[in-house]
Design brief:
72% of the residues lie in helices and 0% in strands. The chain is mainly alpha-helical. Helix 5 runs parallel beside helix 7, helix 20 packs antiparallel against helix 21 and helix 22 packs parallel to helix 24. The two termini are 22 Å apart.
């Protein structure tokens, strides 16, 4: 059957996530990062936005500094640092800020003002390690009574610096502190998850994603596809097949694609309780989702249809393979032609026997078998009428299978709501129930 083509490989994801993290933090702090900025965004722009957002808090203007109760010698030195910063003399601003911070007897009122100026200078100078240490000290020195609202903007800047320095463990630690402080920037949780994924901390990715999905559901929002893919990667790394299947189904429901179907359908066949009687139905799903690609798949499906007594379906499948150039060529061309002839022979025999079969079909099981024959011929109206008659009579040996096939007939006739109702009524066969739910997902696309 089809394969997933390594779409969710961890190696590829790492490169993607690293870029996403970079993009997400090149944003305007004052607007809570509502939109992604261009990848080429200049860091100076980020720092200017930082300055604009926190001008009052950083005390970089003369009037604010003059109103602050600090000693004249400290005020003079700090003002010189801020003047250098405004003039774009970053090396001087850094040096003067550090010299001011090193002055004897710096008070608890003076220290945070100096640290804020030093943090801005370090960010503009792209000295991210210094910016990180300065911001950390600034935040950690704050009294316990400091409102969270005063800490959160500084933490966002610290997250920015941590990302630029590629200090991902620190980014994780401070992102969690930010979330505990009930920060409202939704980007932070996403970046936390992306960073955990890059660090291969897969159990933490799963836990954070569960919370993210809970919040998304509460807000009636779809969890982004990229985040679900990260969750799937972590679940696969943890060998959590149940979780991986659940995430894959969510991806199918919200972001349907040929690749997701190609991954999901073969996984059904690998389940411990899979009923091999439904092999042909798996191929029908592969065909419906455009995932029949190789000659051996067409051969296998045709043989399964023959085994089920449905040569019309076998013939249709084989002729489709010939028409698309997937069969009739190469070293297997002779075998393909033999199978084609065998199918045609069986089809001729069945067409001759069909009138007698129609007359003799009296009980529910015979009617269901006749309905399968008409479905194989894609005569959906006739097959549906027979399925309905068989279900109404009762006593079916394989009622779950009949309901599944009747639902497919409704689906083919465009009656999707009725098909979904019928599929929801299936009981007693786990494989039939699983396939019915996949058809429901397909019908919603």
């Amino acid at each position: 059957m089809g394969s997933y083509c390594n779409e969710l490989t961890e190696a590829k994801l790492g490169d993607i996530v690293t870029e996403l993290i970079s993009i997400r933090f090149m944003m305007n702090n004052s607007s809570l990062f509502p939109k992604l900025a261009p990848i080429s965004c200049d860091l100076k722009l980020t720092c200017k936005l930082f300055l604009a957002s926190f001008a009052l808090g950083l005390c970089i203007s003369g009037p604010v500094l003059a109103q602050t109760p600090i000693r004249p010698e400290v005020a003079k030195s700090l003002q010189a640092a801020q003047d250098a910063l405004k003039a774009g003399q970053l090396d001087s601003a850094l040096l003067l800020s550090q010299q001011t911070l090193a002055m004897p007897g710096i008070t608890v009122l003076e220290k945070p003002l100096i640290q804020r100026t030093l943090a801005v200078a370090a960010l503009q100078a792209k000295n991210f390690p210094l910016a990180i240490s300065t911001l950390e000290n600034l935040i950690q020195d704050m009294p316990d009574s400091t409102p969270a609202a005063q800490k959160r903007p500084l933490i966002e800047s610290l997250l920015n610096a941590s990302q630029q320095a590629q200090d991902l463990p620190k980014l994780v630690d401070w992102a969690r502190i930010y979330l505990k402080l009930e920060g409202s920037n939704p980007t932070v949780r996403t970046v936390l998850i992306q960073t955990l994924s890059v660090l291969k901390r897969h159990e933490e990715v799963v836990q954070e994603m569960k919370e993210k999905m809970r919040l998304d559901e509460a807000a009636k929002e779809k969890t982004p596809e990229s985040e679900l893919r990260m969750l799937a990667v972590s679940q696969r790394q943890l060998k959590d097949d149940t979780g991986y299947n659940s995430t894959l189904k969510r991806l199918l429901q919200n972001y349907p694609s040929k690749a997701y179907w190609a991954e999901m359908i073969p996984r059904v066949a690998r389940q411990a309780n899979f009923n091999a009687r439904f092999d042909l139905d798996l191929y029908r799903l592969l065909e419906q989702t455009g995932n029949m690609e190789d000659a051996y798949e067409y051969v296998d499906m045709a043989n399964l249809a023959l085994k089920a007594g449905l040569p019309a379906e076998a013939s249709r499948v084989l002729e489709q393979a010939y028409a698309t150039g997937r069969m009739g060529k190469g070293s297997d061309a002779v075998n393909h032609q033999k199978l084609r002839q065998q199918i045609q022979l069986r089809l001729n025999e069945d067409d001759k026997a069909l009138p007698a079969l129609e007359k003799s079909a009296k009980d529910a099981n015979a009617l269901a078998s006749l309905a399968d024959v008409y479905a194989a011929k894609q005569k959906w109206d006739q097959s549906l009428a027979l399925y309905n008659k068989a279900l109404a009579m009762g006593g079916l040996r394989r009622e779950a299978e009949t309901r599944l096939h009747a639902g497919i007939a409704l689906f083919k006739l465009g009656q999707k709501a009725e098909a979904n109702t019928l599929w929801d009524s299936i009981q007693g066969d786990a494989t039939a129930i699983e396939l019915a739910q996949l058809w429901k997902t397909l019908s919603a696309q």
